[in-house]
Amino acid sequence: MEVDISKPILDRNERLAQENRALFDEKGIFVLDLMASPGAGKTSTILATIAALRDRYRIAVIEGDIASKVDAEKISAHGIPAVQINTGGACHLESDMIQRAVGALDVDDLDLIIVENVGNLVCPTEFNLGENAKVMILSVPEGHDKPYKYPNIFAISEAVILNKYDTVSVFDFDEDEFRSVVTSLNPSAPVFPMSATKGDGVDAWVQWLAGRVDKAKAMANEA
Amino acid sequence: MGICKGILDAAVEAAEGQNATRINEIRISVGELTEIVEYALQFAFEALSAGTMAEGGTLVVEHISAASKCGQCGVEFEHGVFDAVCPDCGNPFNENIRGRELRIDSIDIDTAEGPGAAGADSGPAKDAAAHGVHDEAGE
User: Is residue A75 part of a domain?
Assistant: First the structure.
């Protein structure tokens, strides 16, 4: 017997993501889903972002890793609330994990939640967490040809951070080619060359982010 | 793996709603712009379906090509992953209309006995219902 279903495969994830988003909108919280390969500099980028914006916004971090608490501990050491999610093998975060993690945060006392997704350029792209924006980091040593290999993550990110930019000459990274492929995949995404640990280029990135956070807050106030 | 679990959960939920005893086939649609690799999905399906009523069933994947509508001149056009540029006016800012699907379309099931029970019309004969109502009766 044929039974018609006709619904998204990730129906449950989508439903919970919309619940998350409704809560974030109600509280005027901007949620950033930060995606990258392992070792591209997600945690360093978060630390640099916190340093630049902590006087302006109340920030919390949700750390997604397969195992360990090391990232959450790094963030907590800076006096920023951090919740660690251990996916226990799963290669990406899903909206129910975010829902549980947000339950451990004081949502009445936050402007910005940065979610550090599991290091992976594939699976996180398909899972809506209820975030306001997905942003990806590519680090220079990974090579300028990555957008050819993992087009989807570049296509769905609202901005691309090019991290470890200080090593661009060492790795023979063709920035022009990189930018032109990113533009062909995603013409509206800005590219922010940056060196998160040294601080170069962080300004342009945090200005962009702050613009988005302020816009979300203004919309929450209007509602 | 997560995608495959989503497929199985949705299929089993729908099948249970119909008092199914077995899922013979699950039909899904996958857009060209998603990160889905069919052989990985099939492999995951084999592993995850073991012990469920979909064990031994078939996962049928329909691939959907990508298309967008030009944000400037409104023309609709098909494209690949890297060339979503309007062929008429060259505008790269377009609205995707097809190719990001991840949808479960339908399932084919066997059901148990009882009034209104339906035999699978295409199910494997080896699973012919123990209760002897494995026929074409339908509902």
Answer: yes
Distance from CA of A184 to the nearest CA of B (A): 6
| Tens digit of each residue's pLDDT (9 = 90 or more) over A129-142 | 999 999 999 999 99
Give the count of Cβ contacts less than 8 A between chain A and B.
Answer: 96
B7 closest CB neighbour out of A9, A125, A127: A9
- Any A CB within 8 A of B61 CB: no
Architecture of domain B2-113: 2-Layer Sandwich (3.30)
Q: Could you tell me which residues come within 8 angstroms of residue A92 by beta carbon, excluding any fewer than 6 positions away?
A: A64, A117, A118, A120, A123, A124, A126, A127, B2
Nearest residue of chain B to residue A4 (CA atoms): B106
Interval A159-184 mean pLDDT: 96
Residues 7-66 of A with CB under 8 A from B: 7-13
Q: What is the pTM of this model?
A: 0.84
pLDDT greater than 60 at residue A183:
yes
The ipTM value here is 0.72
Q: Where are the domains of chain B?
A: 2-113
B103 to chain A nearest CA, in Å? 4
Instruction: Give pLDDT < 70 ranges for chain B.
Output: 113-139
Q: Which helix (H) or strand (E) holds B116?
A: none
Q: Which domain holds residue A40?
A: 13-211
Buried b (16+ CB within 10 A) or exposed e, B90-114: eebebeeebbbbbbbebbbbbbeee
